[in-house]
Amino acid sequence: MSRAPASWLALLLASLVLAACVRAPVESTPAPDRDDIAARLQADIDTLADDAMAGRKPGTAGGRSAYAFIERRMGEVGLVSGTNDPGSYWRLPVDLLATEPQSGQLVLGQGRRRVVVPDSDAAVYTPRRRALAFGGPGTGVPVVFVGFGDGSVLGDALAGAVVVMLADSGRDAARREALFRQRATAVLTVLPDAPALARLRAAEERPRLQLASEEQDHLAAWITEAAFADLLGARRWKSLKADAQEASFAPLELNLSVSIEATSDRREFQSENVIGMIPGSVPGSGAVLVLGHWDHLGECAPPEAPDRICNGAADNASGIAMMLELARRLKAGPPLARDIYFLATTAEEPGLLGIRSFVKDPPVALSGIVAAFNLDMMAVAPEGSAVGFIGRGQDPALDAAILAAIARRGRKVGDQSLADSFLQRQDGWALVQAGVPTVLLSATYGTRSVLDPFLATRYHKPSDEAAAVELGAATEDLLLHEDLIRQIADPARYPAKDSARP
Ligand SMILES: [Zn+2]
């Protein structure tokens, strides 16, 4: 489970009213031995959350041992390749880019005056190792002031220019993107004051990990209004700013020389999503996807802490362990009509990167996936806890099947607003956005009295250790998934929607 984003989008999920919930008889399979299930889950959690895997951070030796272990276990439980690529049996490579700003300098000049703007008034960033831009008189590169606009009125005329824009909270990132799409060489944003610059620094100077394919190869600078006005002259700045407010405002060239330079520590590396499958007995009838993230945070405690490794036992060794046990049980039972895919994703913690890579280049048509089940932080709640239902309200047929399965297992649905608040913080969100009906069913998110103590004491801390996991509700959640997936894998019991094109 990833951190809460800084700003939450208001979520309005239509809550569906379940008209009537008919109790279907529980299938007449022998009662599974819960102690055996719990023992198998614990064994895989022990391995994945061992200090030997050093917190399973992508791009580290511990991360590589984690997915090597999952591959071996996928083979042991009887899965076959899910990559659809004869050159790669289990792995779907994910190209990642880690960057951390190192240095930056903004120099402005007008007439004979030349000013190296101090760090207290300016900041410059690039994801490149080193980036440099010059503009203004004598350089052949125009410095263009676009005010509160995005320069789109200029179109291609902006190519190569250094652009100066006025900050307009909430719209700046999109405007900057638009300017770079028009091939601006660099963008200098004028911020209202020093606190705004401090907030920007705090956000930009963190190390960041992103998909290499989503790299924003930009050179961007920020300056406080006071420093910019000082260089331009107070009167000139005042009239420029007033003009920018007018509806008739048109971008104009500034008689200003600009030099922008920045360096960044940069590392490109490959991590892996791992995918296996149980081929269905009716080819072309669609697929069910089970997923969980294998990565965690690596060392996350301060250097002086006695234990620095965040082992991520609940988050998310437990989800991987449950996926493997679910695969083993589904494979061992009666044949299933639909294909069942099992996907262990990388780089969930830094922003759902592995699953986003999967969505961009899936080995199975997303339109053929009738439902997906994410497993994340599964080993927190005690036996008998209510089921948190993350992702409710996307698909009436799926909701009905889930609610019926919860009821026939003698369980209850938990606090819906609590579950809803986690929708965007888990891998399933990337699938939901891609139109794949995806849920996360876990007693972890069923009640605050279960979740809050975990969040307060173990979530993303070294104390999320294998010895501390609680498998009571996890075992029940596993059996719920098995029951549900058997139904959803059967086109006779769970028809595909007309819109699905398996
Ligand atoms: Zn997490």
Structural account:
By secondary structure, this protein is an alpha/beta fold. The protein has two domains: 228 residues, Zn peptidases (Aminopeptidase, 3-Layer(aba) Sandwich); 169 residues, Glucose Oxidase, domain 1 (3-Layer(bba) Sandwich). Helices cover 30% and strands 23% of the residues. The chain has 13 helices and 19 strands. The strands form three sheets. Strands 1, 2, 3, 5, 9, 12, 13, 16, 17, 18 and 19 form an eleven-stranded mixed sheet that branches. The chain has a six-stranded mixed sheet with strand order 4-10-8-7-6-11. A two-stranded antiparallel ribbon has the order 14-15. It is elongated, with a radius of gyration of 27 Å.
- Poorly predicted segments: 7-29
Strand content: 15-25%
* CATH C-level of the largest domain: Alpha Beta
CATH homology superfamily of the largest domain: Zn peptidases
The overall pLDDT average reads: 92
How far apart lie the N and C ends?
Answer: 30 Å
The whole-angstrom Rg is 27 Å
* Class from helix and strand fractions: alpha/beta
What name does CATH use for the topology of the largest domain? Aminopeptidase
Number of strands: 19
CATH architecture title of the largest domain? 3-Layer(aba) Sandwich
Shape call? elongated
Which percent bin holds the helix content? 25-40%
Number of helical regions: 13
What is the makeup of the main sheet?
11 strands, mixed
